[in-house]
Here is the input.
Amino acid sequence: MTSLGSSVLQWTDYVVVGIVLSISTGIGIYYRFSGGRQKTAEEYFSANRSMSIIPLAIALMVSFMSAITLLGISAEVYTRGTQFTMFYVGFAFGTPIVAHFYLPVFWELQTKSVFEYLEKRFGSTSRMVASIANSLQLILYTGVVLYAPSLALEATTGLSGTMSILLIGIICTFYSTIGGIKAVLITDVFQGFLMFAALFAVLGVATYELDGELSQVWEISEKGRRIEFFDFRFDPTIRHTWWGLTIGGMCVFISLYGTNQVQIQRLLTVKSLTAARVSLYLNWPLMIGLCFLTVFSGLVLYTVYHNCDPVASGMISSYDKIMPYFAAERLSKFPGLTGLFVSGVFSASLSTISAVLNSLSAIAVEDYLKPFYNKKDEELSDARATLFGKIIAITIGFICLAIAFLVGNFGSLVQATIAVSAAFNGPLLGIFTLGMFTEQANEKGAVIGLLTAISFMMWIILGTPKPPLSPLPVTTEGCNFTIAGNNTSILSAGITGEKSFYFYLYRISYMWYSPIGLTITMVVGYLASVAIRKISQETIPEPDPSLLTPFLAARIRKRSSKPTKMASSQDFILESNDQLSRY
Here is the structure.
């Protein structure tokens, strides 16, 4: 039995990890000294629109599927079953919506910051407020992502969480800063393969441990109540239901891929809108493949430990460490495999963090520095913008490091990540949707809607007390060692205490946070816009069709073309009458 806190890595494992980190760093160095040498903002932030479809599709998948996916989802399935997979069904619904209603708007604008859209549609205030909110969300999210691999390193190398976070953060900040977005994207492709390799290593060794009889995985998981996909109860206080997972998953996907700086910036690195759409559609099956492997890994881990739960037996402190614990205990029998697993977890976090750092530096340059220089009637040169982008990337990297040290108190990785992101993702999706899908919205109404939604979501997320959850039943009856106090410790499922004891809003599932934020922003923003126009007797200007979703833009162009024709006919009649009168 392996105890955590002591290194189980062999020299072969260190060689594997060293090679992986060297390749990631080497890619950054290569793109720093090749091509345009990252001297222009266009190359640093947009890769001169030279990316190919398949690498972009992999990068889109990898930037979202971080170490939280590998560690958090496997832990979620181990403790509460397979129902979380319905979350990715929502992604299937969201993909065509993003491809055909949101992406065309940004493609036509070709901006380096998505928030430039808000300035064109509403005004500079909405751009600044939304940009600041998004930056806060990305920094918090990155802190969680940075914390996740420290669990694996702590379990397999004995490194403290502090050292693990510093190691990952510094390496990632280095290559993403010097190599620009092209280094980030190419490294993502390499790291995507490593993520799959890490999961195959876990599954391969687990299959060996189970004597190749994978059929028992389903049987044991069913007995342990881990197999569940369809719960159609429409009760938002139930943690996971089909409705909450699919609707919540769809809103999360649209917010991340349809209006988020990280993914939009990536989608604009190819040559055409069609190529961007194809990459987006290819992203979904890649994501589903990784998700399936992660979910199956959770079931396999449950099968391996169903008679001797590592948390109940005191071997690990949380279920987010279940996969690193397996790697430390079982993969170490095969030289190099533990190193491959650690590299995969490393890669999963490096890819996401590097994407965020590059995007946040782009936002800072476009939304904060350029307007500042414009106010001083100065022009921010291309070289200076690139230099500032690199400095900002380094600064943000260290801020994210500080956040990561605080994340250990957030609880479940998956729930913490979605909850923190949803406080901003839903409202931000709402303000973009308000601009693209309505003609009546104005800046004051949109900002009121956004701030109202963020305030409401922060209240729900931070409000206490919340009903605590415990995992499905586990046991230590099969442990071949003595557990202090109790040899048959069993944890029961469910919510501790009477559900009605807790305030209703605090009982709402985190899966509904994004849909709620989206709805509040749109409803309050629309009503506030109408009220403000009525009070001020302000007329509704004809919006620029290019700033609206394609079907609405087409309707406006068609509508605006009719008065033009009528006006030209009336002008012809008036001119004819004038000529006749003079005659």
About this structure: The chain has a mean pLDDT of 78. Residues 24 and 305 are 35 Å apart (CA to CA). The radius of gyration is 26 Å. Residues 549-582 form one domain.
